[in-house]
Design a protein that fits this description.
alpha/beta; Elongation Factor Tu (Ef-tu), domain 3; Rossmann fold; 6-stranded antiparallel barrel; binds FE2/S2 (inorganic) cluster
Length: 256
């Protein structure tokens, strides 16, 4: 693989609920090549001291304008610094990296827990078929984007919150249980515990399931082995073998 470094320019930045940042970068090559499920690494300038690059899932692209949008929670120094870049600033970017989701069949469910919604929103917009997005948060304030942002013909969005402040009162898995019977396949991203249960629900329902795993990453290119996860074929690197895996490959708590 040839790694493509470039200097991306901050085009716009939106911060919501004081904790979520949508950063849109002018990065023509990454925008053209980026596929749902893939991520980019952003490098912080050395003036902030030695810091590892940070991985960010691609939330949206606008190929015509050469834009790529990343949606993330501002949590910790690295993301604070990235969210602090002014419009017009340059930032070193590597990517797009990693594997992508396969094209979903008509009637697929896209199950997002928390910020796992970023790659699934990208997939939902790009899919050529009708899909249903299930997006669950703890409370309405934790919605990382406005639901109106996620619309296209054939796309249905169902929200849930644990406190009932928006959408159905319940968890992501409650939403999944309500919709699984009509689903042709399941695509999911979110906390590992949720992925593990979602994978076993999909297996019981006899439908295909693909998961995007979230792991801490140091290099993003398969060199440091800091992101390995157990699979039925041994340990694999989430950054370069994934982050998207067929659910049957992933070993959760010692069981595939
Ligand atoms: S982050 Fe270095 S191998 Fe994956």
């Amino acid at each position: 693989m040839v790694n493509s470094y470039s200097t991306a320019i901050v085009e716009t930045k939106e911060i919501t609920s004081d904790r979520y940042c949508k950063l849109t970068l002018k990065a023509p090559a990454a925008s053209v090549k980026g596929l749902p499920g893939q991520f980019v690494m952003l490098y912080l300038p050395s003036e902030y001291g030695p810091m590892l690059p940070r991985p960010f899932s691609i939330y949206a692209t606008d190929r015509e304008k050469g834009l790529i949008s990343l949606l993330f929670e501002i949590r910790g120094r690295g993301t604070e610094l990235v969210a602090g870049f002014d419009e017009g600033s340059g930032i070193k970017l590597l990517g797009p990296l990693g594997s992508c989701f396969p094209e979903p069949p008509p009637g697929a469910l896209l199950l997002a827990g928390g910020l796992g919604v970023a790659p699934l929103a990208f997939l939902a917009r790009r899919a050529k078929t009708p899909v249903t997005v299930l997006y669950a948060v703890q409370k309405a304030d934790n919605l990382a984007f406005q639901p109106e942002e996620l619309t296209r013909p054939g796309l249905i969005l169902h929200l849930a919150s644990e406190d009932g402040s928006i959408g159905y009162e319940g968890t992501a898995l409650d939403l999944l249980a309500m919709h699984l019977e009509q689903a042709s396949a399941l695509y999911s991203c979110g906390p590992r515990k949720m992925l593990s249960k979602a994978a076993s629900m999909a297996a019981k329902a006899g439908i295909e399931c693909f998961l995007s795993l979230e792991e801490r990453m140091a290099c993003g290119i398969g060199a440091c082995l800091g992101c390995v996860t157990e699979t039925v074929q041994g340990y694999k690197r989430v950054c370069s073998d994934g982050p998207v895996f067929a659910a049957g490959e992933v070993v959760f708590n010692g069981k595939a």
